[in-house]
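re the bet — no i am not wrong, look at it urself. input seq straight from the record:
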Amino acid sequence: MKALVFLTLLGAAIVAAEDEKVVGGYECPKNSVPYQVSLNAGYHFCGGSLISSQWVLSAAHCHMSRIQVRLGEHNIAVNEGTEQWIDAAKMIKHPYYNSYNLDNDIMLIKLSRPATLNNYVQTISLPSRCPQADENCMVSGWGNTSASSSNYPDRLQCLRQPIIDDRICRNAYPHLFTDNMVCSGFMHGGASSCQGDSGGPLVCSGMLQGVVSWGYDCAMQGHPSVYARVCRYNSWISSTMSNN
C-alpha cells in the first residue's frame, strides 16, 4: 500500500504496516496463496484474506469509502486471466477499533457478489485455537520490500516467520501491545511485513492467525511486526457475517 500512516504513540512514531511490503522475503510461487486479496482504490493499498465466498477479513485502518477487492492476483500490474475484481458492498470495522493505538484493528468486507472459488481463488480457515510461540507462519503481500527506501513489487511476496512470545512483544512495545495483538517475525530484524502489506494474512498451520496491523520501521532490530490476533474475533466475525 502506498500511503504511510504515522501514529504518534507516547512520543514514538509508529508506521502502520499499510505502506509496508514484505522485506527479506521471496516471490510466492504463482497462485500459491489463493486466499490473498488486493484492496484497490485505483492502486493497491492494502491486503486481505478471503474467509468465505462473499467475505474478506482485513485491517480496520485499511478502511476507505470505496474499495475494489481483487482476487486471484499474482502480478498486480498485468492481467493474467485468473483475476476476479469485485466491488465491496459493505465495510464493517470492529466496533471497538482504536485508531490511536490500533487495538482491534480488524475489518470485514462483504463482496457485492460471491467470488467463484477455483484453483486461483480459495478461502482460508479461521483459527480453531490461538497461535503458539515459535509456531512457523507465513505472511504475504505486495507491500514495500525495502527497509530503507520505497520498492513496491508487482508480484506477490511471501515470508516465513515465527510467532514471538507475548512477553517478548510486550517488552518490545511497552504500553502499546494489547491482548488483541500478536507479534511475528525476527527480533534480530532484517525481514518483516511492511507498508502496503496491511490487512494481509499471517497464516499458521493452515489457519488465519493474524492480520497485518503495525510496527516500527520495517525489519527493525528489536521491533517485530504486530498483527491483530484473529482467534479473539471468531465470535464477532461469525455474528457479523450472519447479521449482514
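see?? The chain is about 5% helix and 35% strand. told u. also The CA atoms of residues 88 and 111 lie 5 Å apart. so pay up
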